[in-house]
């Protein structure tokens, strides 16, 4: 009895490590995890001898996965994978030590063998197979990956239930299914890594596009100023003549014309911060083209100690989501405010939206989200990268709706670079 309890505690530790192969450790709570795993251990010990224990274990593992943030399909996949690996390791140990037949309870050698095989599988998966798959946005259809763990559970149950299978064949099949699971998850993890790199590449391309757009804006503005400077002598002479004739209204109209000549209609933002100006001029040009009402107030210092890539992730994602959502409404309104005061960067983006928003945890889902394809959601529901950057600067993000207006507010602590 004591050996069995120690064995279950050891397996519970392996399960704990398996869960962190799939889910982010940053959101863990030690007390909460310890309580949940103790309850899981008690349930396993109490229900071990009951019929249908394999299904019961899968249900318990699925409930245990609810501790972590992630998609339900991913949690179900983790439950089936852990149970499948345990059964395959148990089957392999049975065929290696007992030639496929066991009378009564397991002895110490059997417990050691199962634990060793489980530990090796977890270490291999943690080291080689699971490096990128923690990203929820990487794979949308976790249920498709369920096929292999489910088949593994069925095969393991068949091998354990029937004593007529040759011992060598049973061991080979068990070891082969373990290797197949590891190989498939390694391939999936590599695909997820490639997908993440594509997303990062798309972000860099957007950043280059914004810089290119800003360069064109600056060149056009410089061209207008250069033309005005060329004719400045004539302009001053004309203004002097009107001043001598006390024609103040004509002077005001003439100066306004000069101002319009100097203004570049595509330069919506000129804060002095090149990263912000380049990106926001690109996004505001799109917003002006698609929306009826766009309001933007930006006042940030040029020397903010914030990487261009971080600006691109935050403002790029939020602006794309807001424009997409507002374009589908009658109001077509968008309000952006970015300010900096005493080391605190404030970002507020409000946009109109249509449809019904449903809150799921810290995410907003839309009734129109079901009709979207390839992640084209009505509003920025997948803002995990934005949150990651906000946390990088020890900030906070508030997301809520006010009537038919969707609001995102971000506060970050950003220092100013000192020039020597």
List strands and helices in order, with pairings.
Elements: H1 2-22, H2 30-47, H3 53-65, H4 72-97, H5 108-129, H6 147-161, H7 167-230, H8 232-244, H9 248-262, H10 274-290, E1 293-299, H11 308-326, E2 333-341, E3 344-352, E4 357-360, E5 363-366, H12 384-392, E6 396-402, E7 405-413
Parallel strand pairs: 1-2
Antiparallel strand pairs: 2-3, 3-7, 4-5, 6-7
Helix pairs in contact: 1-2, 1-4, 1-5, 2-3, 3-4, 4-5, 4-6, 4-7, 5-7, 6-7, 7-10, 7-11, 10-11, 11-12
Task: Describe the model.
With 420 residues, the protein is α+β, with helices and mostly antiparallel strands. The chain contains twelve helices and seven strands. It has a five-stranded mixed β-sheet, covered by helices on one side. It has a two-stranded antiparallel ribbon with strand order 4-5. Helix 11 packs antiparallel against helix 12. The longest helix is centred in the middle third of the chain and has 64 residues, at 167-230. The protein is elongated, with a radius of gyration of 31 Å.
Q: DSSP helix count? A: 12
Helix content: 55-70%
| Dominant shape | elongated
Rg value: 31 Å
Q: How far is it from the N-terminal to the C-terminal residue, by CA? A: 72 Å
DSSP, total strands: 7
Largest sheet at a glance? 5 strands, mixed
Spell the H/E element sequence: HHHHHHHHHHEHEEEEHEE
Strand residue content:
5-15%
């Amino acid at each position: 009895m004591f050996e069995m309890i120690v064995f279950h505690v050891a397996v519970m530790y392996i399960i704990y490590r398996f869960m962190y192969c799939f889910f982010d450790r940053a959101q863990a709570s030690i007390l909460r995890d310890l309580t949940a795993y103790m309850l899981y251990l008690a349930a396993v010990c109490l229900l071990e001898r009951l019929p249908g224990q394999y299904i019961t274990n899968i249900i318990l593992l699925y409930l245990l996965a609810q501790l972590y943030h992630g998609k339900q399909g991913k949690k179900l996949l983790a439950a089936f994978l852990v149970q499948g690996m345990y059964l395959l390791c148990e089957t392999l140990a049975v065929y290696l030590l007992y030639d496929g037949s066991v009378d009564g309870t397991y002895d110490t050698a059997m417990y050691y063998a199962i634990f060793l095989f489980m530990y090796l599988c977890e270490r291999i998966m943690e080291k080689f197979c699971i490096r990128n798959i923690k990203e929820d946005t990487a794979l949308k259809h976790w249920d498709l990956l369920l096929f292999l763990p489910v088949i593994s559970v069925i095969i393991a149950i068949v091998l354990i239930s029937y004593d007529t299978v040759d011992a060598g064949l049973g061991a080979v099949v068990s070891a082969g299914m373990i290797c197949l699971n590891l190989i498939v998850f390694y391939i999936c993890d590599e695909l997820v890594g490639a997908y993440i790199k594509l997303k990062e590449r798309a972000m860099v391309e957007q950043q280059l596009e914004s810089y290119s757009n800003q360069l064109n804006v600056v060149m056009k503005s410089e061209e207008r100023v250069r033309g005005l400077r060329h004719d400045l002598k004539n302009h001053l002479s004309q203004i002097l003549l009107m001043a001598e004739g006390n024609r103040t209204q004509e002077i005001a109209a003439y100066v306004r014309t000069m101002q319009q000549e100097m203004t570049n209609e595509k330069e919506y933002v000129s804060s002095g911060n090149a990263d912000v100006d380049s990106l926001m001029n690109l996004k505001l040009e799109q917003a002006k083209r698609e929306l009826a009402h766009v309001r933007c107030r930006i006042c940030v210092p040029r020397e903010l100690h914030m990487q261009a890539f971080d600006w691109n992730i935050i403002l790029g994602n939020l602006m794309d989501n807001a424009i997409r959502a507002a374009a589908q409404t009658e109001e077509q309104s968008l309000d952006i405010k970015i300010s900096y005061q005493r080391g605190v960067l404030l970002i507020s983006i409000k946009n109109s939206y249509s449809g019904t928003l449903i809150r799921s945890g810290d995410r907003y889902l839309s009734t129109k989200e079901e009709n979207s394809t390839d992640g084209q959601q009505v509003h920025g529901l997948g803002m995990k990268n934005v949150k990651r950057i906000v946390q990088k600067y020890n900030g906070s993000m508030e997301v809520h709706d006010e009537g038919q207006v969707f609001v995102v507010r971000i506060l970050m602590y950003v220092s100013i670079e000192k020039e020597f």
